[in-house]
Design goal:
536 residues; alpha/beta; Nucleotidyltransferase, domain 5; 19 helices; 23 strands; FGGY_Carb_Kinase; L-ribulokinase; ATPase_NBD; kinase activity
Length: 536
């Protein structure tokens, strides 16, 4: 589309909006019906560790959404000289899992508990045994049950429990609904019925600790919808919440809200069986769409779903790029002391390119990039830790390589379960995330770490909000009765540009040496969590 055609599309309201509330950024992306991004806006935020809980203030949710939307709308005005008044379809996505609990007056009862918290171990273990189904600590039902076990006062007043994407969609549309992919991080899903498993709900409701409450679990949880259906419309109140300037009209179709895992699958065209994708950022996760059930229950493998309800094996790690970002900030500060102001992209690229000169085993250096606990490696408290011996080859290339190696280490450990124990193979493994903005470097490290070919598409930098906008367009056009996989193949990814890198034998061997030393040194990381108290 040229500028005039885009202006006409904006006038006619033939544009769709995807908003994603990620771990470090809230981003709004406006796209035309040919899936081209025409405007965007963003807001940077960080979780806070307060009174033993990782959280974001609920006020900042709306400040961030409004800021990113205002930037996006200003972008529309400056580029196309049009006020953004009508949007045909809107989709909200956010960090999966977590716990937002409300009473009958819609009051938030406790601060938002994010996916990053490792505070529900007792509940997760008991529910896994009860259900014979893996319940991770970050799932909403684990948070709910842990609150019950802790005898927290707010539980008696519960009326509604949801995720972050579900909360925002509720406030914009009045509908208490979740997309099935996000809902699969709330409670186990029945692929046949397309909603929560009734047999497991019955088991939960019959627990002595649960029976004492006046509510029923089904009354607390959001309604489940698959991709492609209408999940309400933007209300007048919702339009005012989004657009503080008051230009946006009500009536936009609302797509079922999804988690960032679901939008990652859409953004990488990985919703068919035997396809898979990897998303890396503050956390990292791999998603493999299953064509058969796993042979065994694994505590490090989540069973979630695609946005259309197909079962997915998910390896989720709490930590990935945060420690890299912290070290890059140190280098930026040093450069500034020398009077050099380096743009972020140039700084990352310069440092990442140093890794091409590293030893295959990163010189014997070790790094644990744990800002929070890590379930896969059984680390309860995050203490970023860099370790070397006197004989390690300590230089800049090896240091940067170690940071990249460590970012993918928990994911590697989890993926080994699928590959070695379950013999799961995918026809494609597509990666996306900020670590791949510098071409080749991170992609090659990931291919070597997992010992599988990794593909990065040209849409990798578009990320979750673009994937959510695609789901919004799909909801708008679902009357065509085209399944999501076919829609993505024939409409969205008709001629995708991509690059695939295969594992390098020397790099694979070097990473194997690194991960062997990494796993042997895990007790050191655990001890650091025990010995070093959290500041404040």
């Amino acid at each position: 589309m040229n500028t005039l055609e885009i202006s006409k599309a904006i006038q006619a309201g033939n544009v769709s909006l995807g908003i994603e509330l990620g771990s470090t950024q809230i981003k709004s992306v406006l796209v035309t019906d040919d899936f081209s991004t025409i405007a965007s806006g963003s807001y940077v935020w960080e979780n806070k560790f307060e009174q033993g809980v990782w959280t974001y203030p609920i006020e900042e949710v709306w400040n961030g959404i409004q800021t990113s939307y205002t930037q996006m709308a200003a972008n529309v005005q400056s580029k196309y000289h049009e006020n953004l008044v009508h949007i045909s379809a809107i989709g909200i996505s956010a960090m999966m899992h977590g716990y937002l609990a409300f009473d009958k007056s819609d009051k938030l009862l406790v601060p938002f508990r994010t996916w990053r918290n490792n505070i529900t171990e007792e509940a997760a273990d008991k529910l896994t045994d009860l259900f014979d189904f893996n319940i991770p600590q970050r799932w909403t039902i684990a948070h709910l049950y842990q609150s019950i076990l802790n005898q927290e006062a707010h539980v008696a007043d519960l009326d509604f429990v949801t995720t972050l994407a579900g909360y925002v969609t509720w406030k914009l549309s009045g509908e208490k609904v979740l997309g099935i992919g996000d809902a699969s991080g709330v409670f186990p899903i029945d692929e046949t019925t397309g909603t929560y498993r009734a047999d497991l709900l019955d088991k939960f409701n019959q627990l002595p600790e649960v029976v004492q409450y006046n509510w029923q679990t089904t009354q607390l949880l959001p309604k489940v919808e698959k991709a492609g259906v209408q999940a309400g419309t933007l209300t007048a109140e919702g339009a005012k919440l989004l657009d503080v300037n008051g230009n946006l009209a009500a009536g936009s179709l609302m797509a079922p809200p999804e988690g960032d895992a679901g939008t990652g699958m859409v953004g990488t065209n990985s919703v068919r069986k035997r396809t898979g994708n990897i998303s890396v950022g503050t956390s990292a996760f791999s998603m493999v769409v299953l064509d058969k059930p796993l042979k065994a229950l694994h505590r490090d493998i989540d069973i979630v779903t695609t946005p259309t309800g197909a079962p997915v094996a998910m390896v989720h790690t709490n930590n990935c790029s945060s420690d890299i970002n912290a070290w890059v900030a140190i280098f930026k500060e040093f450069a500034a002391r020398l009077g050099v102001n380096l743009p972020a992209d140039q700084l990352y690229q310069t440092l990442f390119l140093e890794a091409t000169h590293a030893d295959p085993d990163a010189g014997g250096l070790l790094n644990f990039s744990y800002l929070s606990g890590e379930n896969i490696t059984k680390i309860k408290a995050g203490r970023p830790l860099f370790v070397r011996t006197p004989n390690s080859n300590f230089n800049l290339p090896n240091f940067i390589q170690t940071q990249l190696y460590a970012a993918f280490a928990p994911l590697k450990i989890g993926m080994d379960i699928l590959v070695k124990d379950e013999h799961i193979n995918t026809e494609a493994m597509i990666a996306q995330g900020g670590l791949f903005k510098t071409p080749v470097i991170g992609q090659q490290v990931l291919a070597n770490a997992l010992n599988i070919p990794i593909t990065v598409m040209n849409t990798a930098s578009e990320g979750g909000p673009w994937g959510m906008a695609v789901l919004a367009i799909y909801a708008k056009h679902h009357a065509d009765n085209q399944n999501l996989a076919d829609f993505l193949d024939t409409e969205v990814f008709k001629d995708p540009e991509s690059m695939t890198l295969s594992p390098e034998p020397a790099g694979v061997a070097g990473y194997q040496e690194f991960i062997k030393n990494y796993q042997a040194a895990l007790p050191v990381e655990a001890k650091a969590g025990d010995a070093i108290n959290e500041k404040g």
